[in-house]
Design brief:
alpha+beta, nine-stranded mixed β-sheet, about 1150 residues, six-stranded mixed β-sheet
């Protein structure tokens, strides 16, 4: 509160009594309204007056109590109005000054104080220096109960308990249900002067007795912890603490004042740090002459001369209440302008009303429908040949359509200005001049009518938030135009996979640097556990980084997640939770995922390794106290997640108080104050037990569940602009946590006397979006990717991740929420000092031990000749630039699902889903060239619907650990071997590698792939890719894949084709040879030609191929046993002779041998 000053001053009118000169109006009490921008003042003569806004414009003034009752002692604020208390009556008026009820009883002789029974209660407790208290129903205006008492109550405040102070200086904590004193605290030796309670703290000021002389104000403000029910160190105030107010936003900040106007702003948890201010008063302050606004942006004080001062940091946008209800003013009657209406005045001169709000006639886009069709235009050919007839005209039918067929028309004609809907990639490759260019193609972009994706699918909902769905052509998901939805360098995730509702959470974790570092370091370790989610996250994060904006999918992670039995028991999978809301499911999945990742990390962590705990675990102890016998127990309760609790929010609209800040909600959620019935070991029965958390340390990453699925009343908080802070500060002191934001955080950082706060910055969030009436709810993530970039950005870099749609948005859009369609579910904050800390040292510590050993699930069944020849660690270390031939085989796990439309068209609903069945990686050079060091068969737990043995070479028994004669490994082991080779910098050589790696769920940069599909592809000759079998037949004179496929044979064939390509390139005849291949392909329909001779098939010689001869070795493959044996090198077979090129050796042209 540095820089606060007096910004407004008001002199109350002088009071006049009969026969006496005018005198200053005495102020009995003053208080800010909790629901409107009003400051209320109760005078010494029973009058209530209110002033509006920082200008202190007079609003209402009413005589609430008889003059003989003296001063107004206290004010309380309710939805119905303002409750005032005098010595003999209680009065309720509306804020416009109309009396609602007035209660006065003969037994009311010396009332002093009152309090609500709870934050959402409509009953108040009225007490004083008399032997009876009153329980009053505010709605009905009647006394519900008279409660006898033996104490003289002087003042009351409600916070957890009814904190009631007596004239003897004692404070009693009364149970709101029974009004029984739970504990008594002797705060001062004489009477109380003032007290205030906020959050979990009570601060009092009072008088102390002296051996000789009258009582004097104590030089300390006493502090009490309402959670632990124990006294805290007092706040020193040497000039005498007379008044105190707790800051409504900064829960540990208090303002203490003396009677002379000296004010001290102090921290309860650090009393030695304070800020002193001095008010310029004309006289002393009296009782209840200090009030703090609910917004915390201003305070008011009054002196005995009737002068009111308003103090604030600035007058700009000064508000007493953050979410104030509109104050009703009398309507101003404006004189009507005179208009002489006659026959010469046009009607346009009569003005039309101006509407500030949206009219009911402004229908949202989701409620506008087409009705009827435009009339069909007459064909020009019909008009051209029309001849008159008895009735109208007649013309011959041009017969341009089928019988009973018509063109579909629309009310809205197409003028060509709208953005063309993106087509399938296969359609984009067709001739742009064809008539098919004008047809609309099925795509998820049907609602996108502008390139910037603006518009709406529901009232006020941008189209970029709509539910993303993939459409399929006959070429499957690879034909979908993902690039239309993502023009950034950040990759999205596809949605056609089961449990893809987790995509936004995975993106959020990926762009949290500390979490990303932990996952990748774990993936590079020796862990080969089949269901390790932390490994799968590391593989996924690495793929997203390498893809740089290209399409990706999280199939392997989601498969591992679904395989966990606990995930099914908790109903976290789509198959087991059809009825649960998506919001509740993803928050439960977040909790389960963090717990499981912690177990995965500890599986291989070294003794004493607490990096995961420092990053994600909040260490705390849970304190539990029985409210009957006060027996306390303590237990450790570490947690990786904070569930927000909105206890500070008053859900009763009639009792709405100041809006709690996010930092206040987070503090309450950390400390976990709760009361419930539990078993008490001492009482030997179920008793009400109060529990709270004692915080030991907070982690570097705060994962927060908003909990709005169960606490829907709190959703309006998030719709307040700026309510969610981008930065927060945390500090742990004596088991309690101090949380600040905004001005409070900046003030704490600038105060050199206070302990430094740990600043956290918002990484991103997951939001639940309901974008249309006909669309189901779905999740998106909004992430500040600048935090995870390798270079620091001055400004935030917020992006929307709506599955495979990725788009940059501004910070205001990212942090703007709406209760009807956009609700936050998960938040992630990270320690600000860890921003842009991207640790890639895992690449230098890869555990490659699995590359140099044979391991199998069925070691006793594997035939000796089926074991691959593992690498020699001394001489065969793979590294950057090492070429490795590779080929994979897949089986079908799910058949294609199609739908026949009414038009007869065939539409793919769900494409074929394949699973990796075999992977073979060979040596590319050396004495063991062509020998595999990886030849793994994959054990598949899912049912296989088709082994496609003709194309995969895999039969049913090959993947059964009980029957297979080949080495079987889990998918995780096979994947890790390929992932290690990828990050070692190896270059893969194969045929159709792009599709293979996509099915494996791995992204390999083009610089690490040699794909013979693209090497021998010429788009100017044909859009068709050449098959491996055709290239081997034509270029290598080899007839492969004649009966079945073999991954070792295919990988080695790809290696030889790549070397043949290099040979053509060195000779300078590459283009000529590719043209010749396509010429032969058109002749033989791109298939290996065969002819029948006496019932036997004979292979025809390749077109244009050379004779025999030539150096270089080939392969002879034994096709028995389905051709799975390792090929043997045989020098008897060679490829075709390279045509004469432009390079010379001496005076003769030369042939380059096969490398």
């Amino acid at each position: 509160m540095d820089g606060w000053r007096e910004v407004a001053r008001l002199q109350l009118p002088l009071s006049e009594k009969h026969g006496l000169p005018p005198a200053p109006t005495g102020v009995g009490t003053l208080s800010f309204d909790t629901q409107q921008e009003l400051l209320w003042i109760g005078t010494d003569h029973g009058r209530l007056t209110s002033y509006y806004g920082s200008d202190l414009q007079k609003y209402t003034s009413v005589q609430a109590h008889p003059v003989h009752e003296g001063r107004v002692a206290q004010l309380l604020f309710h939805e119905r109005g303002v409750i005032s208390l005098a010595s003999s009556s209680v009065h309720l008026i509306s804020r416009r000054g109309l009396t609602q009820w007035h209660i006065s009883e003969p037994s009311m002789t010396d009332l002093k104080c009152m309090s609500f029974f709870g934050k959402s209660s409509s009953e108040i407790l009225v007490a004083g220096c008399q032997n009876v208290m009153y329980r009053i129903d505010v709605d009905k205006g009647v006394i519900v109960q008279e409660v006898p008492t033996q104490y003289e109550w002087y003042m009351m405040k409600f916070c957890r308990y009814i904190c009631a102070g007596t004239t003897s200086g004692a404070v009693h904590f009364l149970d709101p249900d029974t009004l029984v004193s739970i504990k008594t605290w002797q705060a001062h030796s004489a009477n109380l002067s003032d007290m205030d309670a906020q959050d979990s703290y009570l601060v009092t000021c009072g008088w102390s007795t002296r051996p000789y002389g009258p009582p004097t104000l104590e030089s300390f403000a006493k502090v009490y912890d309402l959670k632990k029910l124990e006294q805290l160190p007092p706040i020193p105030f040497h000039t005498g603490a007379a008044f105190v107010q707790m800051h409504p936003k900064l829960s540990t900040t208090s303002i203490v004042s003396s009677m002379s106007g000296q004010l001290q702003v102090a921290n309860i948890l650090d009393p030695n740090t304070s800020n002193l201010l001095q008010a310029n008063l004309g006289s002393y302050m009296s009782q209840s002459h200090l009030a703090l606004a609910p917004s915390g942006a201003a305070w008011a004080l009054a002196d005995l001369e009737g002068v009111i001062q308003i103090w604030a940091g600035s007058l700009n946008n000064l508000r007493f209440t953050e979410s104030a209800a509109p104050t009703e003013f009398a309507d101003e009657t404006l004189p009507l302008a005179f208009m002489d209406v006659d026959s010469d005045i046009p009607f346009s001169a009569v003005g039309m009303p101006y509407y500030r709000e949206k009219l009911l006639s402004a229908w949202p886009d989701d409620q506008i429908y087409e009705l009827g069709f435009l009339p069909r235009k007459i064909d020009p050919e019909v008009i051209k040949h029309m001849t008159p007839s008895a009735v109208g005209f007649r013309a011959p039918n041009p017969r341009k359509t089928l019988r009973n067929q018509m063109d579909r028309m629309s009310i809205v004609s197409s003028d060509g200005t709208a953005l063309a809907v993106p087509k399938f990639l296969s359609e984009k490759n067709r001739d742009a001049s064809s008539e098919m260019e004008k047809e609309r193609r099925i795509s998820d972009a049907e609602a996108f009518t502008k390139p910037d994706l603006t518009g709406s699918t529901k009232a006020d909902v941008p189209v970029m938030y709509r539910l993303m769905e993939i459409k399929y052509s006959r070429y499957g998901v690879d034909d979908f135009d993902f690039g239309f939805y993502n023009k950034t360098q950040y990759s999205g995730l596809e949605t056609h996979i089961t449990n893809s509702y987790l995509n936004p959470l995975l993106q959020l974790l990926k762009y949290t640097p500390l979490f990303r570092n932990i996952a990748l370091h774990h993936s590079a370790s020796s862990c080969i556990a089949e269901s390790c989610l932390l490994c799968e996250l590391g593989y996924l994060f690495d793929m997203l980084e390498k893809a740089e904006g290209q399409k990706c999918h999280a199939t392997n992670f989601l498969k591992a997640f679904s395989s966990l039995s606990e995930a099914s028991k908790l109903q976290l999978t789509e198959e087991t939770s059809p009825q649960s809301t998506l919001e509740a499911r993803i928050q439960a999945a977040n909790r389960f995922l963090l717990k499981q990742i912690g177990l995965d990390y500890q599986r291989i962590a070294l003794l004493g390794d607490n990096k995961f705990d420092q990053t994600l675990v909040t260490h705390a102890f849970t304190n539990m106290r029985c409210t009957s016998c006060y027996h306390e127990t303590l237990r450790a309760s570490p947690k990786t997640l904070v569930d927000l609790s909105y206890h500070a929010l008053n859900v009763n609209p009639r009792m709405r108080g100041p809006t709690p800040t996010f930092s206040r909600i987070l503090k309450d959620s950390f400390e976990g104050d709760n009361s419930q019935r539990m078993w008490c070991d001492r009482c030997r029965r179920y008793q009400p037990v109060q529990s709270w958390e004692t915080i030991q340390s907070v982690p570097s990453i705060l994962m927060i569940n908003t909990g709005l699925s169960k606490q829907t009343d709190a959703r309006h908080l998030w719709s307040i602009p700026g309510w969610l802070p981008e930065r927060i500060g945390l500090r742990v002191e004596k088991g309690r946590i101090l949380c600040q934001e905004g001005e409070g955080l900046r003030g704490a950082q600038m105060n050199p006397q206070s302990r430094p706060m740990v600043v956290y910055e918002l990484v991103g969030l997951v939001a639940d979006v309901n974008s249309g009436e006909h669309q189901k709810s779905h999740m998106v993530s909004l992430i500040n990717v600048g935090i995870s970039s390798r270079e620091r950005h001055v400004e935030s870099q917020w992006h929307l991740f709506n599955d495979f749609l990725v788009r940059k948005v501004d910070k205001e859009e990212a942090l703007r929420f709406a209760t009807n369609w956009k609700i936050p579910t998960i938040l992630t904050y990270q320690y600000q000092g860890a921003n842009n800390v991207i640790d890639d040292s895992w690449k230098d510590s890869l555990d490659t031990s699995c590359l140099f050993m044979n391991w199998s699930l069925n070691p006793y069944n594997v035939l000796q000749h089926n074991w691959p020849c593992v690498l020699d660690p001394a001489t065969e270390q793979p590294g950057s630039g090492t070429h490795l031939p590779i080929d994979t085989e897949f089986v079908r796990l799910q058949q294609e699902e199609i739908e026949i439309l009414a038009t007869g068209d065939r539409q793919v609903i769900r494409p074929t889903r394949e699973g990796l069945a075999r992977v073979s990686v060979l040596r590319a050079d050396g004495p063991n060239e062509g020998l595999p060091f990886i030849d793994d068969y994959i054990s598949i737990s899912e049912p296989v619907v088709d082994y496609v043995t003709k194309y995969s070479g895999v039969s049913a028994g090959d993947l059964d650990p009980n029957l297979s004669l080949h080495p079987l490994v889990p998918l995780k082991v096979a994947y890790k071997k390929l992932w290690l080779l990828l990050n070692l910098g190896c270059i893969f050589v194969g045929h159709g590698l792009t599709k293979d790696f996509r099915n494996i769920n791995m992204f390999v940069p083009k610089s690490q792939m040699v794909d013979t599909v693209t090497l021998f592809y010429n788009p100017t000759r044909s859009k068709r890719n050449l098959s491996l079998r055709f290239l081997a037949w034509y270029l290598l004179k080899e007839n492969i894949q004649s009966e079945t496929h073999d991954s070792i044979e295919d990988a080695f064939t790809a290696l030889k084709l790549w070397r043949k390509y290099q040979e053509f390139e060195d000779a300078g005849v590459l283009e000529k040879m590719i043209d010749e291949i396509y010429t032969a392909g058109r002749k033989w329909n791109y298939k290996v030609p065969e002819k029948r001779s006496g019932g036997h098939r004979e292979k025809l010689p390749p077109v244009g191929g050379g004779g025999g001869g030539g150096g270089g070795g080939g392969l002879t493959v034994n096709n028995h046993n389905r051709g799975r044996d390792t090929p043997d090198v045989d020098s008897g077979v060679s490829g075709p002779t390279t045509p004469v090129g432009k390079k010379q050796a001496g005076n003769e042209y030369f042939e380059s041998p096969l490398r």
